[in-house]
Amino acid sequence: MTALRKDWDTYFMDIAFMVSTRSRCPRRHVGTVLVQGKKLLGTAYNGAPMGVQDCSEAGCMIVEEFEPTAGDEPNGGMIKKQRCIRTIHAEQNLLLFTDRVDREGSVVYVTDQPCWTCANMLANSGIAEIVYYRLYPKDHGKVAGLMEQRGLIFRQIANYAPPADTEVQDGFSPPTHR
What we know:
Layout: H1 8-20, E1 31-36, E2 39-45, H2 55-58, E3 62-68, H3 74-77, E4 78-84, H4 90-96, H5 100-103, E5 107-112, H6 116-123, E6 129-134, H7 137-150, E7 153-156
Parallel strand pairs: 5-6, 6-7
Antiparallel strand pairs: 1-2, 1-5, 3-4
Helix pairs in contact: 6-7
């Protein structure tokens, strides 16, 4: 009996999750891969800049910000958000370490839906599609709107289960940091 062959989405998302295991962020491991056709062109994960102590060594650099919310919310329509400013997001690292010519028309597979900042950067990077697994509810609506306006395919992978031992169990749900 032959084993079932994984489809391409599962194959590349599995690789993104394996890449995420390189992250030393105690809050969330994010991995991403750049694919042109069926060829893997680059990988990246979230973490501190090269040569700088990461959060597991020096602690997270948490800042608190207040952000407006939609509708009639308590606290005057503002929500307190904590984020780490030591971490470079996986998508940002991917763009730093790949060439524009390789990104033209490519697909980015990322374990987590890009935040607003990363979505803006990806929208201007030459890629044609973003495939993600975990939703980032805070930014989903505006990111989806940006992708639609830009004409990029933006989709959450369906019926997917990450490889064993690749997801960080962090106590932050929904994620407040990437």
